[in-house]
Amino acid sequence: MEETNTQYSYTVVKYFVVASVAWSVIGMTIGVILAAQLYWPALNFDSEYFQFGRLRPLHTSGVIYGFVVNVLMGTSLYIAQKTGHCGLYNRSLSWMVFWGWQLILLLAVLSLPMGYTTSKEYAELEWPIDLLIVLVWVLYAVLFFGTLAKRKVSHIFVANWFFAAFIIVIAMIFVVNNLELPAYFMKSYSVFAGAQDAIVQWWWGHNAVGFLLTAGVIGMNYYFIPKVSERPIYSYRLSIIHFWGLVGFYTWAGTHHLIYSSVPVWVQNIGIVMSLILWLPSWGGAFNSAMTLLQNKQKLKSDYIMLFFFSAIIYYCLATFEGPLLAIRWFNMIAHNTEWIIGHVHSGALGWVGMSGIAVFYYFIPRLWGKEQLWSSRLIKWHFWLAHAGVLLYAIALWVAGIGEGYMWLAQNDNGELIYSFVEAMDFKAPWLLLRFIAGVLFVSGLLLMVYNLYKTVRSPAVFATKEVSHES
Fold it and tell me: Membrane spanning segments where (predicted)?
């Protein structure tokens, strides 16, 4: 049983969560601006700082490193304390991690629109910022594992296994992918070249998805889904199988991004095979989370936080089904470099990661601030349906645009001449790009409702002492 004199540190957790909420709105709003620029190119305003190529890495960095990493850092430090019945390893260190990470994000906001970039997907920041990222990440690792070492129970809860994997794997692949030779301040060249550079980049690029947007979020959900459903994890054994399956196979799947490239065929095949194998642990974990929620069917019918979690699981199933399919050669031949890939990424990013984060915000923030309930149950319902409309329209629009685009690029006359010009393919997908913009507006509108609802909740005078936030220091 939890010791009543345990001193927990929640203030830094609050800061991480608030930063995550802010970056979810900032990062996704930039995404909506980019969607508008694709349909209305004049919105680039002939500005070198506001054009698509400069804003796009700011969008991805804002969502991945701002929204996701902040919530994962905050919840991991909270969960490590609660499940270990101990306080943080070092409070001063926790503030160094928080402010260090916000400094990194600020430098990204300043440097990326100015054109300082390595041009590597999800790794665009230049070498001085990379060094700062490594420093802060090491401090975070010391803080997290130090807190686990302080635990007063022998058992390590499964969520912490996923957090540990996300910390270790991201550190390893980030350092290797960003090995570079500085030419001068804010300019460097990778130590890898050609096919080797591509292999290393997509070892990082795919596993940034696998261990930030997947393993870390799974760890977060394995704690909060049982909490919100008021039931234990459906199968603890299955959660361990889920963990080892993910760790064992995900890191090998990155080369499915390099099919039909100059990378050796056997390396491409490893990515294809591992992608197909990943179906098993991914859907096993999704089944485990879904069954945890379904153990309390009565609450699931009316609790929109549970419904957000359940929706996230459905989109996780969709993304982890579609990903291996897209790795198969004949699928890849149609889909590669088309809007279909963008739709696939966002069905996972908005549907799985976005809805998981939203559910955690709605459940966690009121309890973290000691509030009895959300300020408005009506607003969370509106948010739920706006979010669903946004994700579905986004995915469907880009599925149609991508399939049509891929077909038009491949279509040939009997003499081998291309039937459709590039401009004709662009004309075909234009209305679907408009629909993608509308879908983004719907999703961000829901986020704004969430921010207002959570703000009113936190400012509400109604306070009660919850078990979740007892013994705060």
Answer: 12-40, 60-80, 92-111, 131-149, 156-176, 202-224, 236-253, 265-283, 304-321, 341-365, 385-410, 430-452
Residue 120 lies in a domain: yes
| Residue 471 among known ligand-binding residues | no
Does 66 score more than 50 pLDDT? yes
Q: Tokens for 211, please give them.
A: 């261990």
- Residue 59, marked binder: yes
The answer to whether residue 467 is domain-embedded is no
> Residue 383, annotated ligand binder?
no
In whole angstroms, give the CA distance from residue 59 to residue 350.
13
Structure tokens at 340: 């279909």
What SS3 class is residue 241?
Answer: helix
* 155 labeled binding residue: no
Q: What's the rounded mean pLDDT across residues 448-469? A: 78
Angstrom distance (rounded) from CA 353 to CA 348: 6
> Cα-Cα-Cα-Cα dihedral of 218, 224, 230, 234, to 10°?
10
- 473 within a domain of the structure (yes/no): no
Q: Quote the CA–CA distance of 248 and 284 in Å, as a whole number.
A: 14
Asked if residue 257 belongs to a known ligand binding site, the reply is: yes
Number of domains in the chain: 1
Domain of 414: which CATH number? 1.20.210.10
Residues 304 and 381 sit within 8 Å (Cβ to Cβ) = yes
Q: Give the model's pLDDT for residue 210.
A: 87
355 falls within a domain: yes
Percentage of residues of the chain with pLDDT beyond 70: 96
Structural domain that includes position 41: 11-459
Task: Report phi then psi at 6, rounded to 5.
Answer: -65, 135
pLDDT in tens, 200-222: 999 999 999 889 999 999 999 99
- Confidence (pLDDT) at 461: 80
117: nearest Cα among 126, 109, 106, 108: 126
298-306 contacts, C-beta under 8 A, 24 or more apart: 299/229, 299/230, 300/229, 303/228, 304/362, 304/377, 304/380, 304/381, 304/383, 304/384, 305/228, 305/359, 305/362, 305/363, 305/380, 306/228, 306/229, 306/359
Which residue has tokens 């807190």? 147
